[in-house]
Every structure is written in structure tokens, then in C-alpha cells.
From TrEMBL:
This is DUF7707 domain-containing protein. Residues 1-19 form the signal peptide. Coiled coil: none annotated. Residues 163-175 have a biased composition (Basic and acidic residues). It holds the Pfam family DUF7707. Keywords: Signal. Residues 28-127 form the DUF7707 domain. It comes from Coemansia javaensis. Residues 132-179 are annotated as: Disordered.
């Protein structure tokens, strides 16, 4: 049985559209050079915020998993989370994927509405940006990557359209859990940083 070229082209186009619609964002999809650069900037930002490398004993970023953390010896980091290099890049990547996935919409009206939704749910570098689940308690523990679609203010966001399945997440608890997770991670890093600083001081006194 012969299959016309038109049918083959149509099937190929449908397959391409399906692939585009299933495109999912994850920050580790960035090339190794981009990840290394991001991690370098992340660590430098932490050290600057803490007051220098010696004041940032828990500053880390893993370029393989993009797990990052910042713990100062003398204070809690006060740089807005949504402006840290890794979370900011995570938001930008999710926004780009959202827009790419809009191109698989059937009509121009659908695409326009889709692009508008992307803009409203991805207000990167602001407290209205979606929470990035890339922070971790140490460099060897991979981050969650995907979590509830809430902003840093704790507001529920719409569909991020970045290809990640959040249907199994509890919307009623998502805002509280996201805020708690971020605070717990920061507290753990603060405690670890204090422990490191105390150990260094003890060694100096003993010497």
C-alpha cells in the first residue's frame, strides 16, 4: 500500500508538535559551560553578600546538579532569593520553555493567550517570580527541581507551562510548604556556617 508524501509530512509535523508540547524545563539541561559560569557567579554573590570568602564558609554550587546554598558566618544572607544567579536563571529557562510550548497551540488566539500567561506567571527577578527549587543543604544533595507553582510572596501561580507535572502536588499546602522549605534550608546553612566558623576559631586558639 502506498502512503502519500502529504500524509508522511503531516505525520511528521504532528510528531514535531507533540514533541514541542512535551518539552520540559530543568536547569541541568544548560550546557556545561553555562552551568559552570552560573555556579561561579552564584558563589561570588554569596561571598560578597557575606562580606568575603572567609565569611561564607557554606557557599557552594554544584555545576552538575546546580544545587546551591549560601551560609554566612556572621549573618543570614539578605540578598533576595529571586535575584540569586541560579534561581534567576531557573526562572528565565522556565519562561523560555513556556513560550516554546506556546508555539504548539492550535491557533494564534491560543498562542497569544499562552504567551500572556507565560508573562504573568514568570515575573523573573521579582518577588512574584515562581519559587526555584534548586537550593540544597549541601553540594552533594541534589535539589528538588520541581515544586508547587507559587511565588516568593507565597501567592499561587497559574500553569507555568514548562512541561513539568505538578498535578500531584497539594495546592492547599503548596504556599506554606514552599516558604517553609526555603526557610529551613537557610536555617540549616546558617547553623552549618556557624559550626564551621566555631571550628576554625577553635583551631586558631589552639595554635
Amino acid at each position: 500500500m502506498k502512503i502519500s508524501a502529504a500524509i508522511l509530512v503531516s505525520a511528521a509535523a504532528a510528531g514535531a508538535a507533540s514533541a514541542a508540547s512535551s518539552s520540559a524545563w530543568i536547569i541541568t539541561s544548560l550546557d556545561s559551560g553555562a552551568r559552570a559560569n552560573l555556579c561561579q557567579r552564584q558563589i561570588q554573590t554569596c561571598q560578597n553578600n557575606c562580606g568575603g570568602p572567609k565569611s561564607a564558609p557554606m557557599s557552594f554550587c554544584n555545576p552538575d546538579t546546580m544545587a546551591w546554598g549560601c551560609g554566612c558566618a556572621d549573618k543570614t544572607p539578605d540578598f533576595e532569593t529571586w535575584n540569586w544567579p541560579v534561581p534567576a536563571a531557573d526562572c528565565t529557562g522556565s519562561l523560555s520553555t513556556c513560550r516554546d510550548n506556546c508555539n504548539s497551540s492550535s491557533g494564534s488566539g491560543d498562542r497569544n493567550a499562552c504567551f500572556t500567561n507565560c508573562a504573568s506567571t514568570h515575573k523573573c527577578n521579582t518577588e512574584d517570580a515562581p519559587v526555584s527549587y534548586t537550593n540544597s543543604t549541601d553540594a552533594d544533595t541534589p535539589p528538588k527541581y520541581v515544586g508547587p507553582a507559587v511565588s516568593y510572596k507565597g501567592d499561587q501561580l497559574g500553569d507555568l507551562n514548562d512541561g513539568n507535572d505538578r498535578s500531584n502536588l497539594d495546592d492547599d499546602k503548596s504556599s506554606t510548604e514552599s516558604t517553609t522549605d526555603t526557610a529551613s534550608s537557610a536555617a540549616a546553612l546558617r547553623c552549618a556556617a556557624l559550626a564551621v566558623a566555631a571550628a576554625v576559631a577553635a583551631v586558631a586558639i589552639a595554635a
